[in-house]
Design brief:
160 residues; alpha+beta; Arc Repressor Mutant, subunit A; three-stranded mixed sheet; two-stranded antiparallel sheet; 5 strands; 42% helix
Length: 160
C-alpha cells in the first residue's frame, strides 16, 4: 500500500477487496474462514488504525459473535498465522494486511496523532541491518519495522 490509508478513500472497497482476496486464498489452501474470523478481518479492514484484541472483542460482543477474549484472540491468531493481518509490536495491536497478493516484509508507519497505520514494504536484507547481518554471517528470517511520526494530514495541521 502507498500512503492511501493516510488519504480519504472508500473503506468499503478496502473491506470488499480484502475479504474477497482472503476467501480466495482460504479456498486455495483449504483454510476454514469462519464467520468470526471474517468479521474480525472486516473490522480491521474498515480501519486504518491498529486495534487491540479487546477493542475488537467489544465489537464482536455488540454483534453477538462472542463475549470471551479467546474468541477474538483465536480469530486474530488465525489471521496473523496466515498473513491476513499483522501484529504491531509497539502498540500491542493488530492491523489487516494490505499486501495479500505478494510475499513481503512489512514496515509500519504509525501516526502518533491520529493513530492511523500504513503498511509499507521493506527489504530487511537491504540497508544497514542487511549489511550488519551479512557481515556477521547472519540470515535474517523475520524483522519488525515500525516508525512513529506524523501522517501528511497531521503534519499539515502543524501538530507537534
Amino acid at each position: 500500500m502507498s500512503s492511501a490509508a493516510f488519504e480519504p478513500h472508500d473503506h468499503e472497497t478496502c473491506i470488499t477487496e480484502g475479504i474477497a482476496s482472503v476467501e480466495r486464498i482460504c479456498a486455495q489452501e483449504g483454510l476454514h474462514f469462519t464467520r468470526t474470523r471474517q468479521r474480525v478481518l472486516e473490522i480491521l479492514l474498515g480501519q486504518h488504525k491498529a486495534m487491540g484484541a479487546y477493542d475488537i472483542l467489544g465489537q464482536l460482543r455488540a454483534e453477538g459473535l462472542g463475549s470471551q477474549p479467546p474468541v477474538a484472540y483465536r480469530a486474530l491468531d488465525f489471521l496473523v498465522k496466515h498473513g491476513f493481518a499483522h501484529r504491531i509490536e509497539r502498540l500491542n495491536a493488530f492491523i489487516a494486511c494490505s499486501h495479500l497478493q505478494d510475499p513481503h516484509t512489512p514496515a509500519f508507519l504509525i501516526c502518533r496523532a491520529c493513530e492511523r497505520v500504513v503498511e509499507a514494504e521493506s527489504d530487511p536484507a537491504a540497508g544497514e541491518l542487511g549489511r550488519a547481518a551479512a557481515d556477521a554471517g547472519f540470515v535474517i528470517e523475520r524483522t519488525v519495522r515500525e516508525a512513529e511520526g506524523l501522517c501528511p494530514a497531521c503534519a499539515g495541521k502543524g501538530l507537534q
